[in-house]
Amino acid sequence: MTHLNRRRALALMGGTLAASGLAAPALAANRKIKVGALRFTSHSANFIALERGYFADAGLDVEFEFFQAAQPMAVAIASGDVDYAVTAISGGLISLADKGAIKVIGGALKEEAGIDGQKYLISDASYQAGTQTLKDLDGKKYAVTQAGSSFHYMGSKMAQAEGIDLRFIPLQKVGAIIGAMKSGQVDGWSIVPHIAKPLASAGAWHMVADVSDYLPDYQVTTVFTSASNAADERGMTESFLQAFGQGVDDYAAAMIDGTADQDEMIDLIHKYVYTDRERAKAAPSIINGTMRLSQGAALNLASVQDQLSWFQSEGLVGADITLDTLVDPSYVETTGA
C-alpha cells in the first residue's frame, strides 16, 4: 500500500452493508478515527451516526474534520490525516487511487427520479442579458471549483448534450462561486438544491434545468478511505459503513419518507449545517437540501465508470486506469456493473 504525507499526496494529484445487506461488522474496539465532511445537508448520515450513537455502538470514536471542497479531502485521506470521507469523484481522487493511496468503498448522495436534486443555474446578470437557457451558455463562463471536479464533469456532460462550448472558470471554493454568480462574473454553475433554491428565490440566479435531466442515476458522491484501510482494516471499515448506513436510514425516514419526526432531524442537522443562522432561518435550507442517499451505501458502478471515462477522455487522468483501481466493491451492494 502507498502511504503519503499531505505534501506528497498533493504532488501526485497533479494540482488538479445495504444496511441490511452487510454482514454484522467486527466491532472496532473504540477506535479513534477522523471523518472528513462538508457542512452540507448531503453529509447528514455521518452527523446522525455520531449524534445518535451509531458510531459509538460500532466501536468507533469519531472526530469530524471539515473541508470546503472535494479534492482536499482526497489529499487528507491519502496522507492518513483522515480515515473516511464522503465526497464527489474528482480527478485528484482518481489520480490518488492510481497511486494506490485511496479506494472508493460505497455510495452516498445520488440523483433519483422523483426526488429533487441538483440544479443548473444561470446568473441573474446573464439571464437579464438574454442567456436564459442552457444552450444560451455557448461560449460563456461556467464556474467550477477546480479542473477535474464534479462541477467540471456536470458542466461538461451538459455541454456535450446541448452541443455547446463552455469556458470553465476554476474558483476553488463554493463560497467564491456564489459570490461570482451574484456579481455576474460567471454565467453558469450547478449545485445542490439547498444552495440553489434560496438564492434563486432571492434573485441571485435562475434555476433552468435539473442535473438529473442530463445525468440520470448520477452517483454524486461516494464513501472512500485509504487503500490500506480498505485492505487491512476490514473490521473497522465495515463498522464505519454499518453506522453510516444507519444514519442514511434515519435521514430517509425523516426527510424523504415521512415516517419519522422531521423537526427532530432538522434540529440534529442544524448542529452542523447553517450553524451561523438561527434554527427558523436554517430549516428551509436544510429541507431544500434533501436528496436521496444510497441505502446501505450501495454504489452505482455504471455511474462511477461513466465519470472515470469522462476524466480519461478529457486527459485529466491516465487512460489505463480501470474501475478496479478506483473501487473496492467488496464492502457494499453494487448496481449497474
Explain the layout of strands and helices:
Layout: H1 6-12, E1 31-37, H2 44-51, H3 54-57, E2 60-66, H4 70-79, E3 84-87, H5 91-98, E4 102-107, E5 109-110, E6 119-123, H6 124-128, E7 141-144, H7 150-162, E8 167-170, H8 174-183, E9 188-191, H9 193-201, E10 205-210, E11 222-226, H10 227-232, H11 234-257, H12 262-270, H13 279-288, E12 292-293, E13 299-300, H14 301-313, H15 323-326, E14 334-335
Q: What does this protein structure show overall?
A:
The chain is α/β, with parallel strands linked by helices and 337 residues long. It folds into 2 domains: 6-112 and 218-335, D-Maltodextrin-Binding Protein, domain 2 (3-Layer(aba) Sandwich), CATH 3.40.190; 119-213, Periplasmic binding protein-like II (D-Maltodextrin-Binding Protein, domain 2), CATH 3.40.190.10. 42% of the residues lie in helices and 18% in strands. The strands form 5 sheets. The protein has a 5-stranded mixed β-sheet with strand order 2-1-3-11-4, sandwiched between helices. Strands 9-6-10 form a 3-stranded antiparallel β-sheet. The protein has a two-stranded antiparallel sheet with strand order 5-12. Helix 7 (150-162) links the parallel strand 7 and strand 8 (167-170). Helix 1 (6-12) crosses helix 4 (70-79) and helix 11 crosses helix 12. Residues 5-24 have low confidence and may be disordered. Pfam families: NMT1. Residues 41-252 form the SsuA/THI5-like domain.
